[in-house]
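User: Thanks for the earlier help. One more: Lipoprotein. Can you show the sequence and predicted structure together?

Assistant: Of course, both are below.
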Amino acid sequence: MPSPYRLLTCGLLLVLACGDDGNATTAKPDTDSTSTSTPPVTTTTTGEPTSTGATETPTSTEAATSTTEGSTTGEPAQCAIYTNELECAQNDCKWAQILSYTHGTQGCLGGIRDFCVAKQTSGGLTSVWRDDDGDIEVLQFTHSPTDLGPEWSVCDCDGPLACLCTAQTLDCPERMDEFCGTIVSENSCSNAAAGGNFVCGWFTVSREGPLDGMCDDPPWQSRCLPGTDLSKKTCDPIELPYVDQGYCQGWTDPVFWRDNDGIIEVTTSCGPKPTGWNPCVADDPTQPDECKCGCKI
């Protein structure tokens, strides 16, 4: 009968032989399941965050309280809610200077507005606006802010006229007459820019009343209108076939007309051309006889 010691020895050899046959593997801990079930570990001291996971979390207990939603969902910190520099910095944001714009009788006026923005930003030039109890505020960001409240809207052609003052290009030809027409001084008109380009010119305009071929001889007005060739200040009589009609004896300024809600208006300009107006020419039988009223302006 074999001794117990010998049986134990044989058993041990059998186990070793089974483990070395190249087919069995030694089990290891499931490190992947352990790491995914453990939330990111962050410090609670000031400075850059330290994390074992990809989720960004605040670096201080105060920031963790203020930005709980952002830290748990992976969304950027809601920096726009902070209205002073200290609170902004404490919540891992940066205090920046943003351009603000208004539009009125003096045209576009720009200013500097302090604003709390995220440290990491993306996107290009973006302008936004809001109506704060009748006070229109338009801001221009060098990035695309994603943490603004629902009271803010991205500028488009339906926004306030101040949206057109920003460097963002908005193709809104239907708003340009209103944009320029609000301005009441020649200097402000000449310097009015939309999307970074000058768009207005100073013209003399006479309202001749309904289409009847008569010059009503109302007092002419200086008006700011959208125009082209704004830098041109001289006229070449050779380019003015209207003069050949004999309406204007020696008149050299070109004459334009338009129907403005049933009222015929005429204007003259030496250089710039009013946008949306029709030139008075010698060979256009469809133009109103009010074109000759331009001679008196």
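User: Great, one quick takeaway?

Assistant: Residues 87 and 274 are 51 Å apart (CA to CA).
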